[in-house]
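Regression test case RT-17, inverse folding.

Input:
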């Protein structure tokens, strides 16, 4: 077992990677979340991305600072300290359901990749993802940090590169008959409310992840890491929004 850091030495860059990794999942990376919550609002997606980026910076930093204050090593300590035992039980159930749902999506996605693209049994993909997750969890906090530091730059680079290629290869929004007007179907209808909902449900998982750092970071790195993580999420989201708007609707 890898020993957990106890001297407040996790740097801001690793905190930011852990933050970004908690948000960039299948829905984000595939563009489905961005399509439903941002692109469907047309030109209003621009102020929405700015608002969401600000919220991610503020809330991520706040969670880290409160985690330090309570000396949290998991989200139950944080939630109990803020809201009390009764409310924390409800949030505990909600967080567990979201985590199980996320794991199910990862397993089904890996099964589909191995079946549809490689012609292999879906169980091989499921087994591989489960094995990787078990190895990461066996490494404790350092294992989670390591996998995020390794994968987050790759994921962000791929997302931005593909978005730039889409923009470069296609007509911009508003030209060649491509409309910029939003159509029905966005969730929810108003761009500001959509942004708040988007950040809110993502912060459930973010809280579960970042609250484990309460005894392993200092305030300076917490602020810098939270800000870098929020800005990284905003930049990545904007690249997807710009790519979507270039072909909208």
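Golden output:
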């Amino acid at each position: 077992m890898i020993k957990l850091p106890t001297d407040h030495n996790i740097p801001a860059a690793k905190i930011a990677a852990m933050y970004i990794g908690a948000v960039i999942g299948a829905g984000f990376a595939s563009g489905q979340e961005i399509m439903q919550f941002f692109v469907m609002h047309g030109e209003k997606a621009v102020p929405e991305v700015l608002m969401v980026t600000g919220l991610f910076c503020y809330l991520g930093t706040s969670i880290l600072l409160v985690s330090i204050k309570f000396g949290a090593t998991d989200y139950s300590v944080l939630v109990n300290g803020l809201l009390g035992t009764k409310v924390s039980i409800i949030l505990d159930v909600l967080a567990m359901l979201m985590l199980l749902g996320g794991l199910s999506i990862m397993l089904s996605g890996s099964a589909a990749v191995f079946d549809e693209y490689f012609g292999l049994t879906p169980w091989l993909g499921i087994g591989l993802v489960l094995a990787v997750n078990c190895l990461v969890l066996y490494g404790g906090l350092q294992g989670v940090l390591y996998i995020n530091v390794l994968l987050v730059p790759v994921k962000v680079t791929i997302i931005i590169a593909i978005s730039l290629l889409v923009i470069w290869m296609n007509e911009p929004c508003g030209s060649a008959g491509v409309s910029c007007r939003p159509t029905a179907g966005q969730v929810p209808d108003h761009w500001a409310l959509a942004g708040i909902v988007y950040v809110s449900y993502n912060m459930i998982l973010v809280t579960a992840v970042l609250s484990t750092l309460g005894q392993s970071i200092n305030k300076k790195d917490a602020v810098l890491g939270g800000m870098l993580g929020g800005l990284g999420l905003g930049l990545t989201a904007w690249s997807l929004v710009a790519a979507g708007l270039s072909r909208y609707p």
